[in-house]
Amino acid sequence: MTSSSPPGDRGTSDPDLHSPRVAEVFAQLFDAHAADLRRYVCARAGEHHADDLVAEAFAVAIDRRSTYDPGRAPVRAWLFGITHTLLRAHFRSQARAERALARVHGERVVLETAPEDFVTARVDASRRLEVIASALAELTEDERDVLLLSSWAQLEPTEIAEILSVPASTVRSRLHRTRTRLRTLLLDSENLQQASGEN
Questions:
Q1: Spatial CA neighbour of 91 closest among 61, 105, 112
Q2: How far is the C-alpha of 141 from the C-alpha of 147, rounded, in Å?
Q3: Phi and psi for 147 in degrees, rounded to 5?
Q4: Angle between the 75-104 and 47-63 helix axes, to the nearest 10 degrees?
Q5: Which of 56-70, 86-100, 134-148 has the lowest mean pLDDT?
Q6: Residue-wise pLDDT tens digits, 179-191
Q7: Residues 101, 107: Cα–Cα separation, whole Å
């Protein structure tokens, strides 16, 4: 059984996506990258949706294999880009469902398309996890994207730049700014919880 590629492996032995042996090529890709994609989806959308979203990502990849350009990014980053797009669509669908449910129950709910709002609602663990989830929810969508693609997907700035269609320099500066802001939010949240616990 083939294990998933280590984070440092950037696809130096990528198979030829334009090969007529589609089933064999994508079986190799699945063995190499599905576990990493699943971990990323679990972290952002929860385990319940992970298998379906990863399967959909590979279905989309098979359908769009003729558009893959190895000169632009390694196949691993390309697959993460497809998965990232599917996650965005998933979060938008969830937001619409939440708004519809709120209307049915006559509740007034204000929802922005902010994926980690759902993560925040799902987190039911230690105080530290609650603080992290709360801090993530305070970040903008652009800030979350670069942070999570870097930290959880372990992609390089050049790969993230390809996924988000922005310059690599923008990714680097956004990542630095986001990490700084997240540290501040975590510190503020912890101080607030400590203060409320003392009262």
A1: 112
A2: 10
A3: -65, -50
A4: 130
A5: 86-100
A6: 887 778 777 766 6
A7: 8
Q: What is the pTM of this model?
A: 0.58
Cα–Cα dist 123/63, whole Å:
35
For residue 40, count other CB atoms closer than 10 A to its CB.
23
Name residue, tokens 């942070």: 147
Say how far apart CA 46 and CA 49 lie, in whole Å.
6
Angle at 69 between CA 84 and CA 158, to 5 degrees: 55
Q: Is the dihedral of CA 195, 115, 50, 158 positive or negative?
A: negative
The residue written with tokens 């230690």 in the block is 126
User: What is the rounded distance in angstroms from the CA atom of residue 145 to the CA atom of residue 136?
Assistant: 11
pLDDT in tens, 65-98: 888 888 888 899 999 999 998 888 877 766 665 5
Tracing tokens 């190499």 back to the chain, one arrives at: 32
- Cβ–Cβ < 8 Å for 154, 7: yes
